[in-house]
TrEMBL record:
It comes from Takifugu rubripes (Japanese pufferfish). This is Exosome complex component RRP4. One of its GO terms (cellular component) is cytoplasmic exosome (RNase complex). One of its GO terms (biological process) is poly(A)-dependent snoRNA 3'-end processing. The keyword Phosphoprotein applies. The keyword rRNA processing applies. It is found in: Cytoplasm; Nucleus, Nucleolus. Residues 26-63 form the Exosome complex component N-terminal domain.
Amino acid sequence: MAAEMRLPTIQKQGSMSIYGKGRKDLVVPGDIITSDTGFMRGHGTYVDEDKLTASVAGEVERVDKLICVKPLKTRFNGEVGDVVVGRITEVQQKRWKVETNSRLDSVLLLSAVNLPGGELRRRSAEDELTMREYLHEGDLISAEVQSVFSDGALSLHTRSLKYGKLGQGVLVQVSPSLIKRQKTHFHNLPCGASIILANNGFVWLYPTPEQQEEEAGGFYTSLEPVNLSDREVISRLRNCLMALAAHKVLLYDTSVLYCFESSLQHQVKDILKPEVMEEIVMLTQQKLLEQKG
């Protein structure tokens, strides 16, 4: 059986800028973005023979004279004020290392957490010795980005009572680009569960607490058994998130809730079947369009 093969050839690149009439937004590595010399080189680009060329696959963004390429798939690049969910990976001197889906581990300083009881005081050597009693390796936390170090690592804080150690629930990991930026990323859904849509792509699903133990200062975690109906709701939400992420639908409280409602005619385990997944996502997108209309 004969097979036809072609040798790779060098494509002739035109000198027309992407920002002409034939504008295109998506590029792959090696694409010439522009041959004009008046533009500044941003992230995701390099200069080759006086032509600005893409070094990653993604969407071209232009701010005045600065051109950069925003990758379609990337690690989390945090900004001050972002809500994150992360996992403690290491306990160090006066700080915890936290995995937050970034290029580098994030840092949670001992001085940036509320002590049990919500005490506001200087941290002592005794506090440093008992750090593992507050948070130890493997614990999940919700936090906020306080600052960004010069190397890109994030400094976190949990000084608000809405942040702190996470108890029983389910962690779902999606691309950070699918999380819609909103004023709040903590939602108590009417279906009976709560969700944290963290900017770093870590989504936390958990039973809606009946009452918040404020005096715990963010370290209280309920170990009471989760009843069957709550587990079913959380499992359905988890599968809905997987379906939305597979079809690249933005995740926010409304889209998740519409997807949950669209999935009620199916069993939880069937939601992940490709044909059911596609049907549910189509119904969700229709509801979102009707809401905008």
